[in-house]
Amino acid sequence: MRAVVQRVSEASVTVDGEPVGAIGLGLLVYLGAARGDDTGDVQYIADKIAGLRIFPNDDGKMSLSVVDVGGSVLVVSQFTLFGDVRRGRRPSFDGAADPKDAERLYLDVVAAMRAKALTVETGKFRAMMLVKSVVDGPVTVQIDSKKLY
Length: 149
Fold this sequence. Notes:
The protein is α/β, with parallel strands linked by helices. The protein has a single domain (about 1-145), classed as D-tyrosyl-trna(Tyr) Deacylase, Chain: A (3-Layer(bba) Sandwich). The protein contains 2 helices and 8 strands; from the N terminus they run βββαβββαββ. The protein has helices at about 40-50, 100-115, and strands at about 1-15, 20-25, 25-30, 55, 60-65, 70-75, 120, 130-145. The strands form 2 sheets. Strands 1, 2, 3, 6, 7 and 8 form a 6-stranded mixed β-sheet that branches. A hairpin with a 5-residue loop joins β4 (about 55) and β5 (about 60-65). α1 packs across α2.
């Protein structure tokens, strides 16, 4: 699995002009599942996101997590994180999980983070979404469950 995580002061998702998810202070997470991902990948990603120390303490040093600051998480499915552009100019998405598996893994990550007592909002899986965010910092971190070392 891959996640692009941004520290935000606010973020929201709309589908067909209707709001489906919104947060204030917290993390905007673009999440993609790969072929072969499993529960180990889900837990790794959920643990990393919940524990990322990318919020500033009183001294301005990034040492607090979203849990520490009482923030929320907005998770948006993003299969394009597995777009491969090494050949040609059009991305190949062969590395992305098929939609049925990807949706299950996406929902499992959301459930795993909610089990950590995080407030988690979501986009709408397989929908054309409009995502708005105010990125704080800017701070953006990439997580890949297959790159453990």
